[in-house]
Amino acid sequence: MRMDPTLPETAADLLYTRSEEEIADILYHLGEEHKSRRIARAIVRQRELEPIATTGQLEELVRRALRVHGHRRIHPATKTFQALRLAVNQEIDVLNEFLDAAPELLSPGGTLALITFHSLEDRPVKQRFKALDQSGRIQQIGKIVAPTEAEVEANPRSRSAKVRALRTARGGSD
Q: What phi-psi label fits residue 116: left (phi over 0), alpha (psi between -120 and 50 degrees) or beta?
């Protein structure tokens, strides 16, 4: 789940070393998983028996903890995997650093477009773009672009995608 293999902590490390409360908080805050305490409890119980070595083992553990049987439109372990990925890669911190730096990196008249896939990404982008737009230096372009029904049918993973864009002032007499 690490995007950068030089990062010190893997998802397995996180699951093995963090307390039940820390794991539950990660799942709740970064995965928006409402049954985070139940999943964290199952993880800690399992690791006392043997380490969780594969994503398949974790997926099955989450499925059992949530008491899910059969197929669902959205996989029951999606939020757990999202939370672990976000935590290991420190993605929200990196996104916020990028949002702080991006306006200064754009050339006059430059455009920035960002695709977000869940509310934890979209919320800070939306808020930062709104604040920049209100400052007058940068202007939001158009409305949010979301996938059409046909696009979602062709690529179900696109269902939650949102594109937001902004453009810097041209400088000079603009």
A: beta
Total Cβ atoms within 10 A of residue 11:
20
**What DSSP state is assigned to residue 114?**
E
pLDDT in tens, 110-135: 999 999 998 899 999 999 999 988 98
Q: How far is the C-alpha of 118 from the C-alpha of 135, rounded, in Å?
A: 26
Q: How many other C-beta atoms lie within 10 A of the C-beta of residue 34?
A: 10
Tokens (6 digits) for 85: 């990925």
Residue 171 confidence class, pLDDT cut points 50, 70, 90 = low
CATH topology of domain 91-168: Rossmann fold (3.40.50)
CATH topology (fold) of 11-89: DNA polymerase; domain 1 (1.10.150)
- In the chain the beta strands, taken as DSSP E runs, fall at 111-116, 138-140, 162-168
Query: DSSP 3-state assignment of 167?
Result: strand
The domain limits of the chain are: 11-89, 91-168
